[in-house]
Amino acid sequence: MKKAQLSIYLDPEICRQLEAFAKRQDKPKSLVAEAAIASFLSPDDSDRREAAIAKRLDRIVRVLERLERNDGITLETVALFIRFWLTATPALPEQSSPAARAKGAERYDRFVEALGRRLSSGSTIMKEVSLESNDAESLEPIKDNASST
């Protein structure tokens, strides 16, 4: 099939870029220009890009939803712990307040150190809870089979 000839006018900078690219690729300028025009006119290319962007956005949305869920669980856990602690911990007598503050500061420092160690090791409560719930789910069929025999 014979190709149609096309005469076009290019900006001098674009022409230099075309020549340099064709030279680097060791291809004729007309072949490079033809491929560029075909790519520009191809509706499939924009559809593929749009599909890829939509797929990435869906993945980002799922990650954000998971983060929101985890934040909700964390907030609820902390709130429940604080409520339980405030309910179960009696008020201290006035004379033992300085000693209690000193002991509290010491415990807080140990807590911060332990938290730092856990975070640097990569071990988290969320991972442990996830592993425990997965273990519990895998044991459920065994319990059902054992109780039915």
Task: Describe the overall structure.
This is CopG family transcriptional regulator. Residues 130-149 are annotated as: Disordered. It comes from Bradyrhizobium neotropicale. The structure is a single chain. This protein is 82% helix and 0% strand. The protein is mainly α and 149 residues long. The chain has helices spanning 12-25, 29-41, 43-88, 97-121, 125-148. Residues 143-149 have low confidence and may be disordered. Among the domains are: 12-41, no CATH class; 92-149. The longest helix is centred in the middle third of the chain and has 46 residues, at 43-88.
Features:
5 helices; mainly alpha; single chain
List the SSEs and their pairings.
Layout: H1 12-25, H2 29-41, H3 43-88, H4 97-121, H5 125-148
- Radius of gyration, rounded? 33 Å
Estimated structural class? mainly alpha
Mean pLDDT equals 84
Percent of sequence in beta strands: under 5%
Helix content: over 70%
* Low-pLDDT stretches: 143-149
What is the global morphology?
Answer: elongated
- Largest sheet properties: none
**Beta strands, count:** 0
Region (Disordered): 130-149
Protein name: CopG family transcriptional regulator
Condensed summary:
The protein is an all-alpha fold and 149 residues long. The protein is 82% helix and 0% strand.
